[in-house]
Amino acid sequence: MNLRAEAFPTELMLLGNAMALGLLVWRARKVAWLSLSQAQLTGWLGASTLIAVIWQLKTGIQPGLSFHLLGASVLTLVCGRDKALVGMAGVVLANCANGSADWLAAGWSWLLGPLVGILLADRLLRLSEQRLPANYFAFFFANGFFGAALSFIAAALCLLGFHALAGRYAPGYLLEEVLPYYLLFAWSEAFSSGLIMAMLIIYRPQWVESFDDRRYLSQ
């Protein structure tokens, strides 16, 4: 999901960087960074680093249409929406630093992928807390598995829509030849995210801010 800057007007890329920076500063200021516990810091930094590594395992069919796991749902569940936004910004910048993505396109890469995935994952978490039974399996399947797949699909649709609106690729080509691959890849996202969340909840539940033992294990 890494955009290539040469495919779009420079002004559009600069606009994306400005928008991303503004949103990132706004949400980062909402986090009480100095009050974070050691477990919160470890979970946030560890998950962000793991996702940065996973992003290097990718493939693609056309410039700007790459396939790799997103990880937005996992990071949201581990550390919450705002810290996840900051962590995924670090992942995008690390991807640019090693030459896998363009610095000029970093803003849109964050806006169309991680931002969309994180916002949807956070919303699904709130809905599951309100509507589903308070037990481990409801949390795991609704958020760790299906939430991850839906977040990935939402980010993929935004990316493809951006390409279509910018005139980079024809809408028919994106819908018929590219979207099916993203839909299939969503299951890899769901399986990987579910596995990671299951292992964290079993072995390091203190790293997962969204998982409350008193709520999910008391039934």
What is this structure's SSE topology?
Elements: H1 10-28, H2 38-54, E1 59-62, E2 65-67, H3 72-79, H4 81-97, H5 106-131, H6 136-166, H7 171-203, H8 213-216
Antiparallel strand pairs: 1-2
Helix pairs in contact: 1-5, 2-3, 2-4, 3-4, 3-5, 3-6, 3-7, 4-5, 5-6, 6-7
Q: Number of helical runs?
A: 8
Report low-confidence residues grouped into runs of 5 or more.
none
Query: What is the helix/strand order?
Result: HHEEHHHHHH
| Beta-strand percentage range | under 5%
Termini Cα gap? 40 Å
Number of strands: 2
Name the overall outline: globular
Radius of gyration: 17 Å
Strand line-up of the largest beta sheet? 1-2
Structural class: mainly alpha
Give the biggest beta sheet: 2 strands, antiparallel
Average pLDDT across residues?
91
Oligomer: single chain
Helical residues, percent: over 70%
Summarize the structure.
The protein is 71% helix and 3% strand. With 219 residues, it is mainly alpha-helical.
Characteristics:
219 residues; mainly alpha; two-stranded antiparallel ribbon; 8 helices; globular
